[in-house]
Design a protein that fits this description.
This is Coproporphyrinogen-III oxidase. The chain is α/β, with parallel strands linked by helices. The chain folds into 2 domains: 119 residues, Arc Repressor Mutant, subunit A (Orthogonal Bundle), CATH 1.10.10.920; 300 residues, Alpha-Beta Horseshoe (pyruvate-formate lyase- activating enzyme), CATH 3.80.30.20. The chain is built from 16 helices and 20 strands.
């Protein structure tokens, strides 16, 4: 099976370094403040002319409480009225972005992330969806993938019913860990009952897919305690699972300074947690998609991987590779054609620009031909654990062995270690190399430099 894994501890320890997660290539570190917004306008015009389908992302940054592990762009406040001026600004941005695109472009994918999107009250949620529908061509009847991130502490059956009426058919729920001691240490006290209640509501209301997020490496976690959480999640049986490695970087993320590093599990314990989690999930029938993600065999992600159509973008793994991604809201990232563009991460600057009739784009990147070639290679490897060389050569008019001579030399060591198998026709990631896919992709990353490694999390 393409999803077979071999846990080789010696190799994992040898290759465990920091590196990008490749939700984009080039990564966001390469975005330039000198980016010309005209390039985004030109890309949007091309998208409209070609009538390419769209994926819309809306960043709702508000949280009533701070989770100490979180590194997201957020505004922590209990004052719900603070969302209103932000929504009005977001409405202006919707108008400006839609004016650049063609109304005939179908929105196949839509996602509200955060923050906590359900910080918004039902009237505000309705207004945001109505505004979106007015300016973009939304689909009905569950033909699109419309998802939202949920904090069960901010949702009940009524909330789930309202989201379903708005057109959402997928939910992603942050659990992290059910253990009360761990929850208290990271200020995320969330009962198992709250989580199950929201999932029961989603299933009763025929949501297409349920995703649960877990994090290993949090304070006071042990292999035994985390397996209790994993067993409970398996019993719940979500369609998809994400099991993330907690990256403790208090110098970058202020809330993490409230976590005592001495309370974190040791590197060896973290590896034991991951190994046992993988074993438990595979034994329960989940498919390893890659990069901490698992899915049931009949889930769209698993089917897309099997069919060779899986893609990766800023929302993670996706089945909508054909879509141009438009990110709206503070700090959001768009990819339209060969252009990346990111909004201001500062709330005041974001609002000022939009309310003065300008796109909030602060930085971005226009991909060159080399970027496009390397992006195609990395996407194939990270999504399918395999690269067929001939299609790359035909698409880009290159001789692969010559173009990637330096990368292939580096990969020869990985081949000798059993991580990959390669010849003139293909590169295949072996079962013992799949957990180290980020390392393999890094060999094709021309921007990867030692000076940047501290900006990334560890690969395991």
């Amino acid at each position: 099976m393409a999803t077979e894994l071999i846990w080789d501890l010696e190799l994992i320890k040898r290759y465990d370094q920091t590196g990008p997660r490749y939700t984009s290539y080039p990564t966001a570190l390469q975005f330039s403040d000198n980016f010309g917004v005209a390039a985004y306008h030109a890309a949007a015009a091309d998208s409209a002319t070609a009538r390419r389908p769209l994926s819309l992302y809306f960043h709702i940054p508000f949280c009533a409480r701070v989770c100490y592990y979180c590194g997201c762009n957020k505004v922590v406040t209990k004052r719900r009225e603070h969302a209103e001026p932000y929504l009005q600004t977001l409405f202006h941005e919707i108008e400006m972005q839609s004016a650049l695109m063609g109304h005939n472009q179908t929105v196949e994918q839509l996602h509200w992330g955060g923050g906590t999107p359900t910080f918004l009250n039902p009237t505000q949620m309705q207004a945001l969806m109505d505004k979106t529908a007015k300016h973009f061509n939304l689909v009905s009847g569950d033909f699109g993938d419309y998802s939202i991130e949920l904090d069960p502490r901010e949702a009940d059956w009524s909330t789930i019913g309202h989201l379903r009426s708005l057109g959402f058919n997928r939910i992603s729920i942050g659990v992290q860990d059910f253990n009360p001691t761990v929850q208290q240490a990271v200020n995320r006290v969330q009962s198992e009952e709250e989580t199950r209640d929201v999932i029961d509501a989603a299933r009763a209301l025929t949501f297409k897919s349920i995703n649960i997020d877990l994090i290993y490496g949090l304070p006071f976690q042990s292999c035994a305690s985390f397996m209790e959480t994993v067993d409970k999640v398996i019993e719940i049986r979500p369609d998809r699972l994400s099991v993330f490695n907690y990256a403790h970087m208090p110098n970058r993320f202020m809330p993490q300074r409230r976590i005592n590093s001495e309370d974190l599990p040791s590197p060896q314990e973290k590896l034991t947690i991951l190994e046992n989690t993988i074993t438990r999930l595979l034994d329960a029938g989940y498919v390893y998609i890659g990069m901490d993600h698992f899915a049931l065999p009949d889930d769209d992600l698993a089917l897309a991987q099997e069919g060779g159509t899986l893609h990766r973008n800023f929302q993670g793994y996706t089945t909508h590779s054909q879509c141009d991604l438009i990110g709206m809201g503070v700090s959001s990232i768009s990819r339209v054609g060969n252009v990346y563009a990111q909004n201001h991460a500062n709330m005041e600057e974001y609002a000022s620009r939009v309310n003065n009739g300008k796109l909030a784009i602060r930085r971005g990147l226009l991909m060159n031909e080399d970027d496009r070639i390397r992006s195609a290679v990395i996407n194939q490897l990270i999504c399918h654990f395999r690269l067929d060389i001939k299609p790359i050569e035909e698409t880009f008019g290159i001789h692969f062995q010559d173009y990637f001579a330096d990368a292939l030399k580096k990969l020869s060591t990985m081949a000798a270690d059993g991580l990959i198998r390669m010849d003139s026709q293909s590169i295949v990631v072996e079962p013992r190399g799949r957990l180290l896919i980020r390392n393999i992709c890094m060999q094709f990353d021309v921007y990867q430099q030692v000076a940047e490694v501290q900006r990334f999390s560890r690969v395991i």
